[in-house]
Write a structure and sequence with these properties.
heterodimer; A: 935 residues; alpha+beta; Immunoglobulin-like; 5-stranded antiparallel beta sheet; 30 helices; 16% strand; B: 921 residues; 28 helices; 44% helix
């Protein structure tokens, strides 16, 4: 009935205000959520949590800087040592809404991200409301509330910091709306294609999941509507074909971004060998019960699917199945969809398929919001038909929620220090009673007058739940709770002031020494100060280049996604062109102090080399990976000396004075018997690039067994300082690090709380000659194993001998993003070494002649040069850039052409059917509505 | 309808003997239970004593002290047998006020365990009788099964487990009676007097349970009134009126008890717990699944942190489930009962509700003390369900069997329930259900048709086997497993009583013990058994400030100051506090003068002990008595006592102890390699509003140790070459509370702390011959251990005597009675008289007949200033709130009587009018 009347009046109501209202309501709700949880700018908490702080936020700043600088946008020297930007752009930044961030200065990054998230989710709310309005042809203003439930579901609240996922999340309802329209009327094909195009451009990762979902949705919707029935001939198949065509055309139109991005991403694929697919369920089915309710967020690295959309949604979804007004076919379809969703979560193969066949190693079940989406649809339909439910089923449904809560409280998350149990019981009861109240003509005499505000009460209760309670439950564990938003602003300000003291002319790199904050880690400085560095954290990082940097003792993670410049390592920094170091350490002795702002100190390494220089021609024969094959000593310092010698041809063995120490063991025992257990979890990791053989029972490994688990095991040594040069230390591990911390005189110098990094060189600082210092390695592992730790004084002044040699013959170097020109003169054959990471897309000319680039150590761009003067020009063009543009052009043409065809063709059909079908349509609409498929 | 019929026939049935039968049946069952549990006096000479847990440490000695006071005609308002002396009313009202406790007067002290068995039996038998009475009257049915259901209540798991808390049993027993009179009163307000009297008895017998029973009966009345439509319009009497009258009855009943409750309340408030209570969270107390086993028979595991005990028996459970399947029973009643049961479970789970039920005082031991109320409700429902069982269909029984089986499977899978119970439960369930089902049939199958006649006896037999044998065996089997043989206890008491005859009672003295005399006469409970005064005590209304004083001296005081124990003689402190006699199991102690000895014990005398008061320097009060709590560097308990004595006598006492810190050899332990912040210390934050210690203080002197191998204790060992032939003491100072540890001397354990609930203590290692080698070990089974440097000390007896002689000068005690002390004091200058009577409000002191200001010496003892010269001093304690309490009691009693009379009269006329109109109609 509702539908019929609404159909009739739909002509008059041309403008449906509800989506607009939903947009602003969501915006306000999000602001409230941020305010309640004290997130900046509404409170002192920093929004830059997790990867948002380590990756997305800084990238946005980098993107803005690149646009402003007028250099090539296709290559960036701020991504590690330099890299093709398209992979990062397409995955993290391509959303048109990212431009919002550009309206703010870099120091206001947090606020801009808060607004960006709010706007994206507001679109999600508006589109959802729009979908509900159109799909169910209802006039009920409750669609605004249901629209709100979608952007406030647990997935959105917990994962909102993954800002690049939110575009797909927001577009999903719009796409489903157009998919349904398309089934009814082919003329909407251009709209559908355009929305798909926007979806692809805004983030191909989510677009993939949504694309699959919408396709499944289309099939089930058509099935439910009987579009595949015999009498319809191959109409159904044609429609499905047109839908696919739409996706293909949209994909082609976005090819100019997607093809180069894909080539970049595939070219830098993860080389970690993933374990073969298992058939073991992902989790115990019973733990899924937690997910239906509001429960605390545990570990985001191993989370279960987030599907909770509020108790009202859950309640109505249960009620749906008890509703007599709803036909069995629909119930069956919905049940199938729910079942399939659970199967997707549970069954590894399906789960992986949803994730673009790439196992996420954090933030699992990235598609789980699809189920929340379907549940909101089902809930709204259930709400529209709520009068078809008998009284007893209301209370039975509540009983089912109590049952779920009891199971969760007995076996799941709610049992583990979760205070939501009683709140869930009470709120769900209120919601149950208020929904039941809506079905009554009159309320009992005592409260009869309250009936008028029944709906208002219901809305209030639901709003309290989804805006106040649920986010209150999730957010504190996701947004760490640090109240350092202002501190962050000050820090960016100071860093930018400091960066202005750096030499504006010429090319160089700047890095940090000894990180001082979780939100400006070793890999984000370059973006904040608009400089170049060497660190990076991205899934499409240049793995091979990083593999080489690992040999130099920089902090590298197991799959080479992430390199951090934690400490100044003077010799290698010099060669890689790191001229400036920013640190909170006011006493760094590696290089001269230049300037400071507040607690931040700037140091300048005048010896730092340019991006390219001439090295010995026989440097190619140096084995850059000998450390990985060494299972006796693994001397990182000796390796650096040899490497630099091989480049300069000048003996560099005086760079380091190395020595070992005697270690006293506290709370543990040293043993030379290899323990039967694995030493770190990382031992399971295999990587194509690595030469280490983990199963070698190296006789040189020293094992330590901890005695008492309540206290760390401590390896302690006392060192009588013999030189006031910087003292470095490396603990060489056979493979990945053991969890450990290094203390000097009881001060923490370096801590590693996970075993996902390789050995690194730690800069302990410089000490007065004659002094005795205490160095401790503390570990909370029960078994600890490494080669003998090596200490080294770094003779910084000896580097100039090397740099002088290396600078010989270098006449001029000019550097832009993706374009380098070098002029050289030499009387012998040389190798032009560049600290540009080797990747496809670089081309070179020597004296105007196209020349083959040689990949030095599988890591850097290099060119062998003959004796004489040369002008070398290096230029970067992203692979797939041209074919991408071509494909986009073809796609655009196809779009125009096909749009024309679709519009025309359908016009005929519509005209032909126009007369007799009105009643049919109404019937379909009445019966209709919800179909929901898949997740 | 049932009710009306019953009313008509009620004239004929004048004497309902079922409650009486129930009384004796319950008694017989209890005797069986005691017999099977091997409890004295039912198991001959090998019978065990019931004195376990708090019964041994608190209730039994309190009962003895009550017996002493009554039989010796002493004051009931003050007792020197509780700790160092205290207001008696708090203890009396909480532990002892039940009239049934007077049974203890009939037994000799040595047979206090038997007396308590009798008290428990009487109270539970009354519970059974009242329950039967309630069932008979409530449901107006003549079935004799009400007897069995009465016993089921009295023998439910709550009663079985907690019977040792015998002061709770009065409320437990009175609950059915309260409900019974409420039932009668709701229809006929003339019965108000009954409510008034029963509530008065309830309050008198123990206010703690009375509160819970009162709250419950109030809810019960509201539910009942609503269910029966009393709140509908034009109902007479209106629900509001009935409720109002009930509240009035409760208020008047409470007023009648005011003479006891007000002083008790004041005493309890004055001596409140100072430990910082955490605000109740809303995190459930337990997971729902872990509650399921409580529906069934479970084995008692942890009595400290126990789940709610609600199990009565299987028949009750089945009948409650069947109740909800019964078509004859209105769905309104089912809903009410469903809500009530749900609220019961919610109360257990939701911490704020849980605390509200327990007088807003979170118990730190014996949780959910009101859980029997749910059992009571279940039995009522079960009995009703039993009466209506004929309406049940076969499938209802199948359902019930299915539900029960499902529950059992869940329990078996998810809880730590033992398998043996699983099968036992299944077997009993099957039998009981079968018989219940059989009892709904008119006829049984031919093959067993004749058995139908003995169906009820068989059912009763099974249920009796369950409640009198199986349940107790399972539930309380472990409870008494470590109990002492009663005969041993009797011998012990008689022996120490014999020894105590050697005490010179002509002059006042305190008697304490050394090293735990026996299992049931532990260091907390000696004084009442020998009718003497001591310093140890354990009660929730202990004098916290005075206990804190004892803590500074190295006596064993627990974290919230509920208990203080004299575990070892600490001669200097003992002497000042007037401990002249020490009873010890060590019959060869050489450091003190032996006065008498028996087979197992010896009585020693400390000639240096001061009397109840002494004259000290006027500046003595300026001494910082709590300096140890602020000291996180050395915390030297010995030096502290020297300084203290100096402050009292004015003569330097630094030679009193010869203190030294030996080198400790570490075995299976090493110093922690880093600061405490890196250690995984369990999150314990000790807070107490009185303490000056701060657990968080990061003292540089605290040494953390880690154990090397967790299968063996860590050991700190030292060998001491004895230099003096005088007592050797050891002090292991902790920052605040102790870590669990034990002390060994030459391989013999001399002391043990099993938990971290006490503060640091001084341990008397013994007296050794000079030149002898003594090996001392501190052992701990903890993985982490932290303390300040342990130190040893010899006491110099000569210095002590010299100091004490100074202190003892000038005081001649003439009389010490409970609450009344008089002595003469002679002094050459204005001095401070310090008594070792704990400071409390309402001590009145006169010097030569003139009232003087009473001071509190170190926040702990009564003291006052006397001018120079010789003076007669009289001290007297009057009960705070005593007189106002008596006045309120009288007013309450009179008001109650007036209201009762008015209501009777008014309603008699009302009833007459009704009858007349009825006839006219």
């Amino acid at each position: 009935m509702i539908e019929k009347t609404s159909l009739e009046s739909s002509r008059k109501r041309n403008i449906d205000l509800r989506p607009l209202v939903a947009f602003f309501a969501t915006l306000i709700a999000m602001f409230a959520v941020f305010a309640i949880n004290q997130i900046t700018p509404f409170g002192p908490r920093n929004i830059l949590t997790s990867d948002l702080g380590a990756q997305y936020g800084p990238y946005l700043i980098g993107y803005k800087n690149a646009l402003k600088s007028g250099q090539s946008l296709l290559y960036s020297q701020s991504l590690g040592l330099g890299q093709n930007t398209l992979g990062v752009f397409a995955y993290y930044l391509s959303s048109p809404l990212s431009f919002l961030v550009f309206l703010f200065p870099a120091t206001r990054l947090q606020e801009s991200i808060t607004i960006l998230i709010s706007v994206k989710l507001a679109f999600a709310g508006a589109f959802m409301t729009w979908l509900l309005d159109r799909k169910f042809k209802s006039k009920d203003w409750m669609s605004v509330l249901f629209g709100l439930m979608y952007p406030l579901c647990s997935f959105a609240i917990i994962f909102m910091f993954n800002i690049m996922w939110l575009d797909g999340f927001a577009i999903l309802p719009l796409l489903i709306l157009l998919t349904e329209k398309f089934v009814e009327d082919r003329r909407t094909w251009p709209k559908l294609t355009l929305v798909l195009f926007i979806l692809f451009v805004s983030g191909y990762y989510m677009a993939y999941m949504i694309g699959i979902f919408s396709f499944l949705y289309l099939l089930s919707y058509m099935w439910y509507k009987g579009a595949f029935a015999k009498e319809k001939g191959n109409d159904g198949a044609k429609k499905v074909g047109s839908f696919i065509l739409s996706a293909v055309v949209a994909g082609m139109m976005s090819a100019c971004i997607l093809i180069p991005a894909a080539l970049d991403t595939l070219g830098n694929g993860d080389l970690t060998k993933s374990a073969s697919m298992t058939m073991n369920p992902n989790f115990k089915l019973i733990s899924l019960f937690d997910q239906f309710l509001e429960t605390g967020v545990g570990d985001l690295s191993k989370n279960l699917p987030y599907i909770f959309g509020g108790l009202a949604v859950l309640f109505l979804c249960i009620l749906f199945f008890f509703n007599k007004q709803i036909n069995k076919k629909l119930k069956f379809g919905v049940a199938l969809a729910f079942g399939f969703a659970v199967l997707s979560f549970h069954f590894p193969l399906l789960n992986l398929a949803w994730h673009l066949f790439d196992t996420p190693n954090w933030f699992g079940y990235r598609y789980s919001y699809l189920l929340s989406f379907v549940m909101v649809l089902v809930a709204f339909y259930s709400y529209l038909h709520i009068n078809g439910v008998e009284r007893k089923y209301f209370f039975l449904s509540w009983g089912i929620i109590v049952g779920i809560a009891s199971i969760s409280q007995s076996f799941g998350q709610m049992g583990k220090e979760d205070s939501t149990f009683f709140a869930t019981l009470a709120l769900s009861f209120l919601i149950c009673v208020l929904f039941y109240g809506k079905t009554l003509k009159t309320w009992p005499e005592e409260i009869a007058n309250l009936k008028r505000i029944g709906t208002l009460l219901l809305v209030a209760v639901i709003l309290v739940e989804i805006v106040v309670m649920n986010p209150r439950c999730y957010m504190p564990s996701v947004f760490s709770g640090r109240k350092d938003a202002d501190e962050y602003v000050d820090m960016i300000d100071d860093l930018q002031t400091l960066a202005k003291q750096e030499d504006a002319s010429g090319w160089y790199r700047s890095e940090i020494h000894s990180p001082w904050h979780t939100f400006i880690r070793g890999n984000t400085l370059a973006f904040y100060t608009n400089k170049h560095g060497i660190s990076i954290f991205a899934s499409m990082s240049n793995k091979r280049n990083n593999h080489f940097l690992k040999q130099l003792g920089y902090e590298m993670n197991y799959n080479y996604f992430c390199i951090e410049h934690q400490f100044s390592i003077f010799p290698t920094d010099t060669l890689l062109g790191v001229r400036y170091i920013i640190s909170t350490d006011h006493d760094l002795k590696d290089m001269p102090y230049k300037f400071n702002v507040g607690n931040y100190y700037l140091y300048e390494n005048k010896e730092a080399m340019p991006i390219a220089f001439l090295a010995s021609a026989d440097a190619y024969s140096f084995d850059g990976y000998q450390l990985e094959k060494d299972d006796q000593k693994k001397d990182y310092f000796e390796f650096q000396e040899k490497w630099i010698t091989s480049l300069s041809g000048v003996d560099a063995s005086d760079l380091y004075d190395t020595f070992n120490a005697e270690w006293e063991v506290k709370n543990g025992e040293k043993t030379d018997i290899q323990p039967s257990e694995d030493i770190t979890a990382g031992d399971y990791v295999e990587n194509e690039l690595n030469y280490e053989t983990k199963n070698t029972k190296s006789s040189a490994l020293q094992y330590y067994l901890r005695n008492n688990t309540k206290s760390p095991m401590v390896l302690r040594t006392k060192i009588k300082i013999e030189s006031d040069k910087p003292l470095y230390m490396v603990i060489p591990y056979l493979f990945l690090q053991c969890v450990s911390e290094v203390y000097v005189d009881d001060e923490l110098v370096c801590g590693q709380d996970s075993a996902s990094y390789y050995s690194q060189i730690v800069n302990l600082g410089a000490f007065q000659q004659g002094r005795e210092i205490k160095v401790e390695i503390r570990t909370t592992q029960d078994i600890y194993a490494s080669f003998a730790p090596i200490f080294a004084y770094c003779n910084t002044e000896n580097i100039s001998k090397q740099t002088t040699a290396l600078r010989q013959g270098l006449d001029d170097v000019s550097v832009k993003n993706g374009h380098v020109v070098v002029k050289t003169t030499s009387d012998t054959d040389k190798m032009l070494f560049t600290s540009i990471p080797f990747e496809k897309g670089w081309s070179a000319t020597v004296d105007g002649q196209k020349t083959e680039i040689v990949s030095y150590q599988d890591a850097f761009v290099s060119i062998p040069l003959s004796a004489g003067s040369h002008t070398i020009e290096l230029r970067f063009t992203p692979p797939g850039w041209k074919p991408g543009f071509l494909a986009s052009g073809i796609g655009l043409m196809a779009f125009v052409l096909l749009s024309f065809v679709m519009l025309k063709k359908n016009k005929n059909i519509v005209e032909a059917k126009a007369e007799g079908t009105d009643t049919e349509k109404v019937e379909a609409a009445t019966q209709d509505s919800k179909k929901s498929e898949e997740v | 309808m049932i009710e009306r019929d019953a009313i008509e026939t009620s004239r004929e049935r004048k004497w309902n003997t079922r409650p009486l039968i129930s009384f004796f049946a319950t008694m017989a069952f209890l005797f069986m239970i005691f017999f099977f549990s091997g409890i004295s006096p039912f198991s001959g000479t090998s019978g065990k004593s019931v004195l376990i847990s708090d019964l041994s440490a608190q209730y039994a000695p309190f009962l003895v002290s009550l017996r002493n006071s009554i039989l010796h005609g002493r004051s009931l308002t003050y007792s020197f047998q509780i700790g160092m002396g205290k207001n008696y009313l708090g203890i009396f009202a909480y532990y002892l006020s039940s009239p049934i406790n007077l049974v203890a007067l009939l037994f000799p002290v040595s047979h206090i365990s038997d007396a308590i068995v009798v008290i428990i039996t009487l109270k539970l038998s009354l519970a059974g009788a009242f329950m039967t009475w309630l069932l008979d009257k409530r449901f107006q049915d003549k079935t004799k099964m009400s007897i069995l259901f009465g016993s089921i209540y009295a023998l439910c798991s709550f009663a079985l487990v907690f019977m040792m808390n015998f002061m709770w049993l009065d409320g437990f027993a009175l609950l059915p009676l309260v409900i019974l009179v409420i039932e009668q009163f709701r229809k006929d307000t003339r019965q108000w007097w009954k409510v008034f009297i029963v509530l008065t008895i309830l309050f008198v017998s123990g206010y703690y349970m009375a509160y819970m029973v009162g709250v419950f009966s109030f809810f019960y009345l509201i539910a009942l009134l609503d269910y029966e439509g009393f709140f509908s319009k034009d109902r007479d009497p209106s629900g509001a009126k009935v409720l109002g009258l009930f509240v009035l009855a409760a208020v008047f009943a409470a007023m009648v008890c005011a003479a006891m409750l007000i002083p008790a309340g004041l005493d309890t408030i004055y001596n409140a717990d100072h430990s910082a209570a955490t605000t109740p969270s809303v995190i459930p107390n337990f997971s729902l699944i872990s509650f399921l086993p409580q529906l069934f028979l479970t084995r008692l595991t942890d009595i400290a942190d126990n789940p709610p005990f609600i199990y009565a028996d299987l028949a009750t459970l089945f009948l409650v489930i069947l109740f909800f399947k019964n078509k004859e029973i209105s769905s309104r009643l089912k809903r009410w009962c469903g809500i009530a049961l749900g609220l019961g479970v919610l109360s257990f789970m939701l911490p704020p509700l849980d605390i509200a039920w327990q007088l807003f005082d979170e118990p730190n031991w014996y949780m959910h003390r009101y859980s029997y109320i749910l059992t009571f409700g279940m039995i009522l429902i079960a009995f009703y369900s039993y009466l209506h069982r004929k309406a049940l269909a076969n499938r209802d029984f199948a359902w019930t069997a299915g539900i029960v089986f499902l529950l059992l499977v869940l329990i078996e899978r998810f809880s730590a329930q033992e398998n043996s119970l699983y099968y036992q439960t299944i077997a009993f369930s099957a039998a009981i259900l079968l018989f219940l089902w059989g009892s709904t049939k008119e006829k049984w199958p031919d093959a067993i048709g004749n058995l139908k006649q003995i169906e009820t006896p068989l059912l009763v037999l099974i249920l009796v086997a369950e409640i009198a044998f199986l349940n107790p065996k399972t539930t309380v089997g472990n409870l008494f497993s470590n109990a002492q043989k009663n005969q041993d206890f009797v011998t012990q008491v008689e022996e120490i009583q014999g020894l105590s005859d050697a005490i010179d009672r002509t002059s006042w003295a305190r008697v304490e013990q050394e090293d735990g005399l026996g299992k049931n006469i532990d260091s907390l409970s000696l004084a009442p058994y020998i009718d003497a005064n001591g310093i140890s005590s354990f009660s929730s209304m202990s004098n916290k400030k005075q206990q804190r004083f004892l803590k500074q001296l190295g006596y064993r005081v627990n974290y919230n100051y509920f208990s203080a124990e004299h575990t070892f003689p600490i001669l200097p402190a003992d002497s000042v506090l007037g401990i002249r006699y020490i009873l010890s199991t060590d019959t060869d102690e050489t450091s003190m003068e032996k006065v008498a000895s028996a087979e197992h014990y010896a009585l020693y005398q400390n000639p240096d002990a001061a009397s109840i008061a002494f004259i000290a320097e006027t500046e003595a009060d300026l001494f910082d008595f709590y300096q140890l709590e602020k000291d996180d560097i050395t915390k030297d308990y010995f030096a502290f006592q020297e300084k203290w004595l100096t402050s009292l006598t004015g003569k330097a006492a630094e030679d009193l102890y010869t203190t030294f810190e030996p080198e400790w050899e570490l075995i299976n332990v090493e110093p922690a390699p880093c600061d405490s912040e890196y250690l995984e210390l369990d999150e314990i934050e000790y807070k107490d509003a009185m303490n000056l210690e701060n657990e968080k203080s990061d003292s540089e002197s605290i040494q953390y140790y880690i154990r090397t191998n967790e299968k063996a204790p860590m050991v700190f060992r030292t060998n001491v070459k004895v230099e003096k032939n005088s007592p050797l003491y050891l002090s292991v100072p902790f920052l605040m509370r102790c870590f669990p540890y034990s002390v060994y001397c030459n391989g013999q354990k001399v002391f043990e702390e099993e938990a971290s609930s006490n503060y640091s203590v001084i341990i008397d290692l013994g007296t050794f011959e000079a030149g002898m080698d003594v090996q001392i070990e501190i052992r701990s089974n903890e993985d982490l251990f932290a303390c300040l440097s342990p130190r040893l000390a010899y006491v110099d007896r000569a210095v002590l005597s010299e100091q004490m002689n100074l202190l003892k000068q000038g005081v001649t005690v003439t009389e010490v009675k409970d609450g009344r002390v008089s002595f003469s004091a002679e002094t050459e200058k204005e001095s401070l008289v310090i008594t070792t009577i704990p400071f409390e409000k309402n001590w009145r002191v006169t010097v030569d007949g003139k009232k003087v200001d009473v001071l509190s010496y170190q926040d702990a003892f009564v003291s006052f200033v006397v001018p120079e010269g010789t003076h007669q001093i009289a001290m007297e304690f009057s009960l705070p709130g005593g007189s106002i309490g008596v006045i309120i009691s009288v007013v309450g009693l009179l008001s109650g009587a007036v209201v009762a009379l008015v209501l009777r009269k008014k309603h008699t006329s009302g009833a007459k009018n009704e009858k007349v109109t009825g006839d006219l109609k």
